[in-house]
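Lab notebook, design round three. We kept the backbone fixed and only want residue identities now. Task for the bench partner: fill in a sequence for the structure below.
Input structure tokens:
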């Protein structure tokens, strides 16, 4: 059985940030798996689709079944190598069955928007998890880029950072809906963030640069 699971990144939202290779794989696949928003953006009438919801087991069962006769393309947001369904797929299928096609990560785009290189930044995820205090603690010149979620957001994360030695007047950049028409990039400070609108799914960048 030579069929493959193709995990294609779709970028942070706008078609401008999906790689041509990922777009080709998505367009040419008979079987397409992805979140509802990705399916409504990319699926056509000829494709068999399966929406990814909280029920990951059903998605894995669907992929396993379809893989017997077809390649299966799984769309994930941003880049597949950065906090996506890739790990679940790796746990359930042999590596030689999987082909990963990169696209631009929301984290990459956030740093690009600030004209800031990210090779020295600490990159952490608060998406469904909490980094350790050791990872979060303040050190001189440290810059942290963070994925967020509903619970760990632009109001709760600054408090966690301040309890880990960061000063309230440290610069905080909130990058919300990157690449969409209603994208917002807001410069504030850790202390002020509690007093402005809350942003849930966004990228936060903390540090003075
Ligand atoms: C499960 S992670 C997926 C990350 C993805 N693999 C990537 O490389 O961008 C989802 C989180 O990514 C961030 N994110 C995804 N798209 C975004 C966007 N367009 N603007 C800002 N943050 C975004 C948010 O923190 C969101 O909660």
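Proposed sequence:
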């Amino acid at each position: 059985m030579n069929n493959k699971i193709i995990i294609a990144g779709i970028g942070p939202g706008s078609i401008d940030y999906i790689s041509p290779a990922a777009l080709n794989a998505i367009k040419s696949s008979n079987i397409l798996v992805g979140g509802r928003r990705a399916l409504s953006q990319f699926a056509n009438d000829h494709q068999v689709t399966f929406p990814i919801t909280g029920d990951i087991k059903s998605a894995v069962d669907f992929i396993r079944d379809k893989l017997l006769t077809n390649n299966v393309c799984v769309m994930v947001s941003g880049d597949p190598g950065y906090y996506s369904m890739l790990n679940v797929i790796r746990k359930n299928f042999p590596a030689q069955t999987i082909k990963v096609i990169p696209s631009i990560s929301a984290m990459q785009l956030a740093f690009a928007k600030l004209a800031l290189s990210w090779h020295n930044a600490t990159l952490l995820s608060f998406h469904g998890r909490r980094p350790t205090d050791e990872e979060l603690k303040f050190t001189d010149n440290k810059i942290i880029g963070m994925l967020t979620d509903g619970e760990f957001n632009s109001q709760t994360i600054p408090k966690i950072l301040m309890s880990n030695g960061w000063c309230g007047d440290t610069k905080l950049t909130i990058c919300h809906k990157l690449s969409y028409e209603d994208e917002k990039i807001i410069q504030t400070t850790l202390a002020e963030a509690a007093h402005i609108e809350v942003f849930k799914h966004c990228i936060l960048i903390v540090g003075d640069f």
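Keep this in mind before ordering anything: The mean pLDDT is 97.
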